[in-house]
Design brief:
flat; two-stranded antiparallel sheet; about 80% helix; single chain
């Protein structure tokens, strides 16, 4: 694929993405959404975050693997469960991961 074709593909993807994102507000306009739909939308962000954390903590390329990063996420999860702040949990996760990788 030539450089020009690659940039044309990137531009086309940008236009299609913008059109998809604009379709919702254009279609719904100023209408009020049903209460159940708002409930579903509010649950999508935590579900997506949980999926990203699972994939990041358990994936090693194309295979599932348990390693130092998995242990770091687990320890941070325990720390958050015990009431530690998010900043401290990230520092704990980084420290545990680094320590286990060094060993």
């Amino acid at each position: 694929m030539s450089t020009g074709a690659a940039w044309a593909l990137v531009g086309l993807c940008a236009v299609v993405t913008a059109a998809i994102k604009a379709a919702g507000p254009v279609a719904l306009g100023g209408r009020e959404l049903p209460a159940w739909f708002n409930g579903v939308i509010s649950l999508m962000a935590p579900a997506l975050l949980a999926a990203l954390v699972c994939v990041s903590a358990l994936a090693d390329g194309d295979h599932l693997a348990v390693g130092a990063d998995t242990a770091g996420v687990a320890v941070a999860g325990l720390a958050l469960w015990r009431g530690v702040s998010i900043v401290a949990a990230v520092i704990i996760a980084a420290a545990v991961t680094a320590l286990l990788r060094a060993v």
